[in-house]
Design goal:
alpha/beta, Heat Shock Protein 90, Rossmann fold, 3 domains, 5-stranded mixed beta sheet, 5-stranded parallel beta sheet, 12 strands, 56% helix, 12% strand
Amino acid sequence: MRFQNLAPRVFERIMARLPEAYRHGKMPYVFLFVMLVVSVLLLYVAISPYQNATPMFLSMAVLLLFLLTLIQFGMPLAWGVHIGTSAGALVLLYAVWSAGGVFSPRLAWLMILPLTPFYVISRKAGTFWLVVVWLLQLGMAVCNYYGLLPEFEQGLLHAPSSWVTFTLVTGVLIIVPMIYERLHLKALEKSLRYQHELVAKRQELEHTLQMREHFIATVSHELRTPMNAILGFNSLLLARVKDKPEALKVLNHTRQSADHLMTVINDILDYSQLQAGQLVIQPETFELRSVAEHAFELFRPRVKSMKLDYRIEMDDDLPQWVHTDRHRLMQVLVNLLGNALKFTHQGSVVLKLLWDKPGVVFAVQDTGIGIAKERQAQIFKRFSQAEGDIQSRYGGNGLGLAISQKLAQLLGGDIGFESEPGRGSRFWLRLPLQAAQPPVQKPDLLKTAVQTHQQPWCFLIVDDHPINRLLVKQVLQNAWPHSDILEAMNGQNALDMLRDHPVNLVLMDMVMPVMDGIVATRTLRDAFSAPQNALPVLGLTANVNPMDLERFKASGLSDVMLKPFEPTVLCHKIDQLLSTS
């Protein structure tokens, strides 16, 4: 037991004292084996009965040490092994030739030759040298058979040398695999340690990814919550100043700035969901020309102050109705048009829709600054823009094209561009769209007045932000002037109110202190008695994480709307719930 523990310790000490170049991989094996052979050669110098043994064995020892030095300074290891093995074969061949051929005990040293190529280089190299050894042994046998070797007389003088030969060969055949096995175990131990480090690193990265997703969701919620109030009150004010051009102009500028900020927020969130594989396509049937014109018209107010030829061209052969994700298609078109207008100050920006038989190509051609050849490979990478000073000169977050590429892939198409510096760019989106049957027409609720506006309803608004409660309250009072409106700042507060006051509909936020909207809604459905447990609950949340939204819906919501919301859409959604409850 002590010997088993002693051997590894001795080996570790030897390893620690090796030159740096011989401490890694197979190099310790090479160094120790060469030093073992050098020691054997020096031993033969002392005990060999042949007169020419001393210069021959010393030369071989010097050659091996010289090869070690060359390897340390960069010579390929395979070269050194082949050269050393070849020199060893020549020395052994001469020694065997001089000592009786196949009857010489030195012939046993030929058994050692294939070991180093086999362990250090490859099995193929070891097999090659094994064949060489067999041929040398066969050659010696033939020479002995035909009497071609010099006469050799056995005697007591050669007995010690022969005994040393067989003893050392036996020892080397045992020691060499032991050394290699030890090196293999060390390599395996190092590999396992590295695997454990990789597992720990992976767990750390997964934790970092989860924290990133949580951070993005939290930041998105915190940004969308005040944007709900900004856009909501802006919509209410726009409805009241239609006859005041100056006020209308100011509010429209405010709305454009707020919409731009929402675009940035949505870009960051969309890219996060794309990276996590959480963004899904929701196809629907819609009019292709209408969506393209809508995306085009969004930039009409900006173009009015610019000297640009801004137009849209559509093939006559385009299908009227197509089936894909309308919102995501709109998002890509808006990104491409927005980029073209950002980098084009004169000339033209043209949106073209081309029928590709089958499929549709959406192309945005501009005469802007163009993209340098060496920068074009970076265009679709996140947070990347063509030039280092582009962001400072033109603005932007560097996410629009990265998101557009991912969305194009999700829609089953592809995206690309052609550009020349100073001559403009042409970005295109190709989608495999075909003509679809028109959907069943539904009434446009936005053009229909609220049907229950004269009813004295009682609403309960549950939200921890007083500004959001104020916005919803104002929207409800405008649509239902005879209604009674209650307010609660968290889920527990809402449940207490529901026990004491009859309510017709609850508008429930999801993220709140004390008790969130998920728990509060589930408690209402499970713990309250009929008919109160069937009360309509409309979720209003700025949290757009798909998993959180599924949990919110599964808690028992009647419907859900995302913040920021359009007041008109909210009113019609409430009107539907009240009419069917």
